[in-house]
Amino acid sequence: MTKAPLRVTITGAAGQIGYALLPRIASGQMFGPDQPVILQLLEIPVEKVMTALNGVAMELEDCAFPLLQDMVLTSEPDVAFKDANWCLLVGSKPRGPGMERGDLIRENGPIFTGQGRAINDHAASDVRVAVVGNPCNTNCLIAMNSAPDIPDERFSAMTRLDQNRAQAQLAAKAGVHTSAVKNTLIWGNHSATQVPDFVHATINGKSAAEVINDNDWLTTTFFETVQKRGAAIIAARGLSSAASAANGLIDHVRDLCNATPDGEWRSVCVKSDGSYGVPEGLISSFPVRADGKGGWEIVQGLELTPFLAEKLALSAAELSGERETVSGLLT
Ligand code: NAD
Ligand code: LMR
Protein backbone atom coordinates (compact mmCIF):
# COMPACT_ATOMS: atom_id res chain seq x y z
CA MET A 1 0.00 0.00 0.00
CA THR A 2 1.30 3.47 -0.81
CA LYS A 3 2.38 5.42 2.26
CA ALA A 4 0.80 8.79 3.05
CA PRO A 5 3.17 11.59 2.01
CA LEU A 6 5.38 13.25 4.61
CA ARG A 7 5.30 17.03 4.65
CA VAL A 8 8.86 18.30 4.83
CA THR A 9 9.53 22.01 5.33
CA ILE A 10 12.90 23.35 4.23
CA THR A 11 13.77 26.93 5.10
CA GLY A 12 16.30 28.82 3.01
CA ALA A 13 15.33 26.52 0.17
CA ALA A 14 16.78 28.78 -2.56
CA GLY A 15 20.20 28.83 -0.88
CA GLN A 16 23.27 26.74 -1.50
CA ILE A 17 22.42 23.92 0.88
CA GLY A 18 18.83 23.94 -0.33
CA TYR A 19 19.99 23.38 -3.90
CA ALA A 20 22.06 20.35 -2.90
CA LEU A 21 19.47 19.01 -0.47
CA LEU A 22 16.11 19.16 -2.22
CA PRO A 23 16.76 16.63 -5.01
CA ARG A 24 18.14 14.20 -2.48
CA ILE A 25 15.01 14.39 -0.34
CA ALA A 26 12.75 14.20 -3.37
CA SER A 27 14.57 11.10 -4.62
CA GLY A 28 14.03 9.22 -1.35
CA GLN A 29 17.48 9.45 0.21
CA MET A 30 16.25 10.99 3.46
CA PHE A 31 13.01 9.12 4.16
CA GLY A 32 13.40 5.99 2.08
CA PRO A 33 12.59 4.77 -1.42
CA ASP A 34 8.89 4.11 -0.69
CA GLN A 35 8.07 7.33 1.19
CA PRO A 36 6.33 10.04 -0.86
CA VAL A 37 7.06 13.63 0.17
CA ILE A 38 5.51 17.05 -0.15
CA LEU A 39 8.19 19.76 -0.04
CA GLN A 40 7.18 23.00 1.67
CA LEU A 41 9.78 25.58 0.74
CA LEU A 42 10.25 28.77 2.74
CA GLU A 43 12.25 31.77 1.60
CA ILE A 44 12.44 35.44 2.42
CA PRO A 45 9.92 37.80 0.78
CA VAL A 46 12.37 39.30 -1.70
CA GLU A 47 11.38 39.11 -5.36
CA LYS A 48 14.77 37.99 -6.62
CA VAL A 49 14.95 35.23 -4.02
CA MET A 50 11.39 34.01 -4.64
CA THR A 51 12.14 33.97 -8.39
CA ALA A 52 15.25 31.87 -7.71
CA LEU A 53 13.14 29.55 -5.53
CA ASN A 54 10.72 29.16 -8.41
CA GLY A 55 13.67 28.17 -10.61
CA VAL A 56 14.70 25.49 -8.11
CA ALA A 57 11.12 24.17 -8.09
CA MET A 58 11.13 24.09 -11.91
CA GLU A 59 14.26 21.95 -11.81
CA LEU A 60 12.68 19.58 -9.30
CA GLU A 61 9.67 19.27 -11.60
CA ASP A 62 12.02 18.49 -14.45
CA CYS A 63 13.47 15.57 -12.48
CA ALA A 64 10.01 13.87 -12.50
CA PHE A 65 10.80 12.24 -9.15
CA PRO A 66 8.31 9.43 -8.48
CA LEU A 67 8.20 10.26 -4.75
CA LEU A 68 7.64 14.01 -5.08
CA GLN A 69 3.91 14.55 -4.69
CA ASP A 70 3.69 18.31 -4.42
CA MET A 71 5.58 21.51 -3.60
CA VAL A 72 4.54 24.61 -1.72
CA LEU A 73 6.60 27.77 -2.33
CA THR A 74 6.06 30.54 0.17
CA SER A 75 7.56 33.39 2.15
CA GLU A 76 4.99 32.91 4.96
CA PRO A 77 6.24 30.74 7.86
CA ASP A 78 2.65 29.88 8.84
CA VAL A 79 2.07 28.40 5.39
CA ALA A 80 5.47 26.72 5.16
CA PHE A 81 5.12 24.89 8.49
CA LYS A 82 1.45 23.93 8.04
CA ASP A 83 1.03 20.26 8.96
CA ALA A 84 4.78 19.71 8.58
CA ASN A 85 6.12 16.37 9.84
CA TRP A 86 9.76 17.43 9.55
CA CYS A 87 11.10 20.98 9.61
CA LEU A 88 14.65 21.44 8.34
CA LEU A 89 15.78 24.88 9.48
CA VAL A 90 18.56 25.83 7.10
CA GLY A 91 17.60 29.40 6.16
CA SER A 92 19.95 31.94 7.75
CA LYS A 93 23.10 33.83 6.93
CA PRO A 94 26.33 31.83 6.51
CA ARG A 95 29.62 33.17 7.92
CA GLY A 96 32.30 34.60 5.68
CA PRO A 97 36.09 34.36 5.88
CA GLY A 98 37.56 35.39 9.23
CA MET A 99 34.28 34.96 11.12
CA GLU A 100 33.35 32.35 13.72
CA ARG A 101 29.90 30.76 13.54
CA GLY A 102 29.00 32.38 16.88
CA ASP A 103 29.44 35.82 15.26
CA LEU A 104 26.15 35.14 13.42
CA ILE A 105 24.13 34.80 16.58
CA ARG A 106 22.66 38.29 16.80
CA GLU A 107 21.64 38.31 13.16
CA ASN A 108 20.42 34.73 12.82
CA GLY A 109 19.06 34.08 16.33
CA PRO A 110 15.84 36.09 15.91
CA ILE A 111 14.86 34.04 12.81
CA PHE A 112 14.37 31.06 15.09
CA THR A 113 11.92 32.70 17.48
CA GLY A 114 9.34 33.38 14.75
CA GLN A 115 9.91 30.04 13.09
CA GLY A 116 9.71 28.18 16.40
CA ARG A 117 6.37 29.86 17.12
CA ALA A 118 5.05 29.07 13.64
CA ILE A 119 6.08 25.43 14.04
CA ASN A 120 4.40 25.34 17.45
CA ASP A 121 1.16 26.70 16.03
CA HIS A 122 0.94 25.06 12.61
CA ALA A 123 3.02 21.90 12.30
CA ALA A 124 1.72 18.32 12.53
CA SER A 125 1.37 16.78 15.99
CA ASP A 126 4.33 14.46 15.31
CA VAL A 127 6.60 17.24 14.02
CA ARG A 128 10.37 16.91 14.36
CA VAL A 129 12.83 19.72 13.81
CA ALA A 130 16.48 19.67 12.68
CA VAL A 131 18.46 22.91 12.79
CA VAL A 132 21.37 23.57 10.42
CA GLY A 133 21.52 27.40 10.29
CA ASN A 134 24.44 28.65 12.38
CA PRO A 135 25.18 28.82 15.20
CA CYS A 136 22.99 25.73 14.97
CA ASN A 137 23.09 24.57 18.61
CA THR A 138 21.92 27.88 20.02
CA ASN A 139 19.48 28.52 17.17
CA CYS A 140 17.96 25.14 18.00
CA LEU A 141 17.69 26.22 21.64
CA ILE A 142 15.86 29.37 20.54
CA ALA A 143 13.45 27.46 18.26
CA MET A 144 12.78 24.88 20.99
CA ASN A 145 12.04 27.58 23.55
CA SER A 146 9.71 29.30 21.11
CA ALA A 147 7.65 26.12 20.67
CA PRO A 148 6.47 25.30 24.19
CA ASP A 149 3.76 22.84 23.05
CA ILE A 150 6.23 20.59 21.25
CA PRO A 151 8.26 18.12 23.32
CA ASP A 152 11.90 19.21 23.57
CA GLU A 153 13.16 15.85 22.35
CA ARG A 154 11.74 16.58 18.90
CA PHE A 155 14.46 19.24 18.39
CA SER A 156 17.98 18.53 17.23
CA ALA A 157 20.86 20.34 15.57
CA MET A 158 23.49 19.00 13.22
CA THR A 159 27.02 17.84 13.96
CA ARG A 160 26.75 14.95 11.51
CA LEU A 161 28.87 16.80 8.99
CA ASP A 162 31.62 17.06 11.62
CA GLN A 163 31.24 13.37 12.43
CA ASN A 164 31.60 12.50 8.76
CA ARG A 165 34.64 14.77 8.50
CA ALA A 166 36.25 13.03 11.48
CA GLN A 167 35.52 9.63 9.95
CA ALA A 168 37.17 10.65 6.67
CA GLN A 169 40.27 12.03 8.44
CA LEU A 170 40.76 8.87 10.53
CA ALA A 171 40.28 6.65 7.47
CA ALA A 172 42.81 8.64 5.44
CA LYS A 173 45.41 8.50 8.22
CA ALA A 174 44.96 4.75 8.71
CA GLY A 175 44.91 4.09 4.95
CA VAL A 176 41.50 2.36 5.08
CA HIS A 177 38.14 3.00 3.45
CA THR A 178 35.79 5.26 5.42
CA SER A 179 33.43 2.30 5.90
CA ALA A 180 36.06 0.64 8.13
CA VAL A 181 35.75 3.52 10.62
CA LYS A 182 32.84 3.40 13.08
CA ASN A 183 31.60 5.40 16.02
CA THR A 184 33.39 8.64 15.27
CA LEU A 185 31.85 11.14 17.59
CA ILE A 186 31.60 14.87 18.15
CA TRP A 187 30.90 16.32 21.58
CA GLY A 188 29.76 19.88 22.40
CA ASN A 189 29.16 22.80 20.09
CA HIS A 190 29.20 22.88 16.27
CA SER A 191 32.00 25.42 16.43
CA ALA A 192 35.77 25.62 16.60
CA THR A 193 35.54 24.30 20.20
CA GLN A 194 33.83 21.06 19.14
CA VAL A 195 35.40 17.89 20.49
CA PRO A 196 36.16 15.21 17.90
CA ASP A 197 36.52 12.02 19.92
CA PHE A 198 39.27 9.68 18.73
CA VAL A 199 39.11 7.52 21.85
CA HIS A 200 35.84 5.74 21.14
CA ALA A 201 36.12 5.49 17.35
CA THR A 202 37.06 2.13 15.88
CA ILE A 203 38.86 1.06 12.72
CA ASN A 204 37.99 -2.44 11.55
CA GLY A 205 36.63 -3.09 15.05
CA LYS A 206 39.82 -2.02 16.89
CA SER A 207 40.43 1.18 18.82
CA ALA A 208 41.21 3.95 16.28
CA ALA A 209 43.74 5.46 18.69
CA GLU A 210 45.61 2.13 18.88
CA VAL A 211 45.49 1.54 15.13
CA ILE A 212 46.78 5.04 14.39
CA ASN A 213 49.20 4.96 17.30
CA ASP A 214 50.14 8.63 17.03
CA ASN A 215 48.80 10.59 19.97
CA ASP A 216 50.39 13.83 18.79
CA TRP A 217 48.59 13.62 15.46
CA LEU A 218 45.30 12.72 17.14
CA THR A 219 45.42 15.56 19.68
CA THR A 220 46.65 18.23 17.27
CA THR A 221 46.33 17.67 13.51
CA PHE A 222 43.22 15.47 13.61
CA PHE A 223 41.55 17.53 16.29
CA GLU A 224 42.17 20.90 14.67
CA THR A 225 41.48 19.73 11.11
CA VAL A 226 37.99 18.65 12.13
CA GLN A 227 37.38 21.71 14.30
CA LYS A 228 38.42 24.08 11.51
CA ARG A 229 37.20 22.19 8.46
CA GLY A 230 34.26 24.55 7.90
CA ALA A 231 36.65 27.52 7.78
CA ALA A 232 38.98 25.63 5.42
CA ILE A 233 36.08 25.02 3.01
CA ILE A 234 35.16 28.71 3.15
CA ALA A 235 38.77 29.69 2.45
CA ALA A 236 38.94 27.33 -0.52
CA ARG A 237 35.49 27.85 -2.06
CA GLY A 238 34.72 31.38 -0.97
CA LEU A 239 31.43 29.89 0.23
CA SER A 240 30.55 27.62 3.09
CA SER A 241 30.06 23.90 2.70
CA ALA A 242 26.88 22.96 0.87
CA ALA A 243 27.05 19.52 -0.75
CA SER A 244 28.62 17.98 2.36
CA ALA A 245 26.23 19.90 4.62
CA ALA A 246 23.23 18.62 2.65
CA ASN A 247 24.71 15.13 2.85
CA GLY A 248 25.17 15.51 6.61
CA LEU A 249 21.53 16.47 6.98
CA ILE A 250 20.37 13.50 4.91
CA ASP A 251 22.40 11.25 7.24
CA HIS A 252 21.21 13.09 10.38
CA VAL A 253 17.49 12.78 9.66
CA ARG A 254 17.64 9.28 8.15
CA ASP A 255 19.52 7.97 11.18
CA LEU A 256 17.12 9.62 13.63
CA CYS A 257 14.22 7.89 11.83
CA ASN A 258 15.78 4.42 11.87
CA ALA A 259 16.99 2.23 14.72
CA THR A 260 20.73 2.66 15.28
CA PRO A 261 22.61 -0.63 14.75
CA ASP A 262 23.66 -2.42 17.95
CA GLY A 263 26.86 -1.10 19.46
CA GLU A 264 26.83 2.11 17.41
CA TRP A 265 25.86 5.73 17.91
CA ARG A 266 25.59 8.92 15.90
CA SER A 267 26.59 12.49 16.79
CA VAL A 268 23.45 14.54 17.32
CA CYS A 269 22.99 17.85 19.12
CA VAL A 270 20.13 17.41 21.59
CA LYS A 271 18.99 18.98 24.82
CA SER A 272 21.41 18.09 27.59
CA ASP A 273 20.07 16.26 30.63
CA GLY A 274 23.35 16.96 32.41
CA SER A 275 25.10 13.94 30.90
CA TYR A 276 28.90 14.12 30.75
CA GLY A 277 28.90 17.35 32.73
CA VAL A 278 27.19 19.43 30.02
CA PRO A 279 24.84 21.84 31.83
CA GLU A 280 21.19 20.85 31.58
CA GLY A 281 19.14 22.49 28.89
CA LEU A 282 21.97 23.37 26.49
CA ILE A 283 21.80 21.88 23.00
CA SER A 284 25.03 19.90 22.81
CA SER A 285 26.38 17.16 20.60
CA PHE A 286 26.30 13.72 22.23
CA PRO A 287 26.48 10.09 21.19
CA VAL A 288 22.85 9.31 20.42
CA ARG A 289 21.01 6.08 19.64
CA ALA A 290 17.64 6.15 17.90
CA ASP A 291 14.98 3.51 18.53
CA GLY A 292 13.41 3.65 15.07
CA LYS A 293 10.06 4.77 16.53
CA GLY A 294 10.85 8.44 16.90
CA GLY A 295 12.65 8.16 20.23
CA TRP A 296 16.34 8.45 21.04
CA GLU A 297 18.66 8.34 24.02
CA ILE A 298 22.06 9.72 24.91
CA VAL A 299 24.51 6.82 25.23
CA GLN A 300 25.70 6.65 28.82
CA GLY A 301 28.87 5.37 30.41
CA LEU A 302 31.51 6.37 27.86
CA GLU A 303 34.71 7.28 29.64
CA LEU A 304 36.19 10.63 28.70
CA THR A 305 39.97 10.96 28.97
CA PRO A 306 41.15 14.07 30.88
CA PHE A 307 42.06 15.64 27.49
CA LEU A 308 38.56 15.12 26.04
CA ALA A 309 36.82 16.07 29.31
CA GLU A 310 38.73 19.35 29.46
CA LYS A 311 37.90 20.16 25.83
CA LEU A 312 34.22 19.29 26.35
CA ALA A 313 34.06 21.59 29.39
CA LEU A 314 35.39 24.44 27.20
CA SER A 315 32.83 23.75 24.48
CA ALA A 316 30.01 23.56 27.04
CA ALA A 317 31.18 26.87 28.52
CA GLU A 318 30.97 28.40 25.05
CA LEU A 319 27.41 27.08 24.70
CA SER A 320 26.51 28.58 28.08
CA GLY A 321 27.92 31.92 26.87
CA GLU A 322 25.83 31.73 23.70
CA ARG A 323 22.74 30.98 25.79
CA GLU A 324 23.50 34.05 27.87
CA THR A 325 23.89 36.19 24.73
CA VAL A 326 20.46 35.18 23.43
CA SER A 327 18.72 35.15 26.81
CA GLY A 328 16.38 37.87 25.55
CA LEU A 329 15.13 35.49 22.84
CA LEU A 330 14.45 32.61 25.22
CA THR A 331 10.86 32.83 26.41
P1 NAD B 1 22.87 30.59 1.65
O1 NAD B 1 23.12 32.04 1.92
O2 NAD B 1 23.33 30.03 0.35
O3 NAD B 1 21.33 30.29 1.77
C1 NAD B 1 20.60 30.67 2.88
C2 NAD B 1 19.20 30.95 2.41
O4 NAD B 1 18.43 31.21 3.57
C3 NAD B 1 19.10 32.17 1.50
O5 NAD B 1 18.47 31.81 0.29
C4 NAD B 1 18.27 33.16 2.31
O6 NAD B 1 17.41 33.95 1.51
C5 NAD B 1 17.50 32.21 3.21
N1 NAD B 1 16.98 32.83 4.44
C6 NAD B 1 17.56 33.79 5.20
N2 NAD B 1 16.74 34.12 6.20
C7 NAD B 1 15.64 33.37 6.08
C8 NAD B 1 14.44 33.26 6.81
N3 NAD B 1 14.20 34.03 7.87
N4 NAD B 1 13.51 32.37 6.40
C9 NAD B 1 13.74 31.60 5.32
N5 NAD B 1 14.85 31.66 4.57
C10 NAD B 1 15.79 32.52 4.97
O7 NAD B 1 23.48 29.78 2.88
P2 NAD B 1 23.79 28.21 2.96
O8 NAD B 1 25.18 27.97 2.47
O9 NAD B 1 22.66 27.44 2.38
O10 NAD B 1 23.86 28.02 4.56
C11 NAD B 1 22.70 28.18 5.35
C12 NAD B 1 23.06 28.09 6.83
O11 NAD B 1 23.56 26.77 7.14
C13 NAD B 1 24.16 29.05 7.28
O12 NAD B 1 23.82 29.59 8.54
C14 NAD B 1 25.38 28.17 7.39
O13 NAD B 1 26.35 28.70 8.25
C15 NAD B 1 24.75 26.91 7.93
N6 NAD B 1 25.53 25.68 7.79
C16 NAD B 1 25.51 24.79 8.84
C17 NAD B 1 26.20 23.60 8.76
C18 NAD B 1 26.20 22.64 9.91
O14 NAD B 1 26.96 21.65 9.84
N7 NAD B 1 25.41 22.79 10.95
C19 NAD B 1 26.90 23.28 7.59
C20 NAD B 1 26.90 24.20 6.54
C21 NAD B 1 26.19 25.40 6.66
C1 LMR C 1 30.46 23.99 8.29
O1 LMR C 1 30.83 23.37 9.28
O2 LMR C 1 30.95 23.77 7.16
C2 LMR C 1 29.38 25.01 8.43
O3 LMR C 1 29.02 25.20 9.76
C3 LMR C 1 29.69 26.28 7.74
C4 LMR C 1 30.73 27.07 8.49
O4 LMR C 1 30.49 28.26 8.77
O5 LMR C 1 31.80 26.53 8.76
Q: In words, what does this structure look like?
A:
The structure is a single chain. The chain is an alpha/beta fold and 331 residues long. The chain folds into two domains: 6-157, NAD(P)-binding Rossmann-like Domain (Rossmann fold), CATH 3.40.50.720; 160-325, Lactate dehydrogenase/glycoside hydrolase, family 4, C-terminal (L-2-Hydroxyisocaproate Dehydrogenase, Chain A, domain 2, Alpha-Beta Complex). The protein is 41% helix and 18% strand. The chain has helices at residues 16-26, 47-63, 77-80, 105-108, 111-122, 136-145, 160-174, 208-212, 215-227, 229-237, 243-257, 306-325, and strands at residues 6-11, 37-42, 68-74, 86-89, 128-131, 155-157, 181-182, 185-187, 195-197, 202-203, 206-207, 266-271, 283-290, 296-298. The strands form four sheets. A six-stranded parallel beta sheet has the order 3-2-1-4-5-6, sandwiched between helices. Helix 2 links the parallel strand 2 (37-42) and strand 3. Helix 1 (16-26) packs across helix 11, helix 5 (111-122) crosses helix 6 and helix 7 (160-174) crosses helix 11 (243-257). The radius of gyration is 19 Å and the shape is globular. (2S)-2-hydroxybutanedioic acid (LMR) is lined by residues 94-95, 101, 134, 161, 230-231, 233, 240-241, 245. (2S)-2-hydroxybutanedioic acid binds next to helix 10.
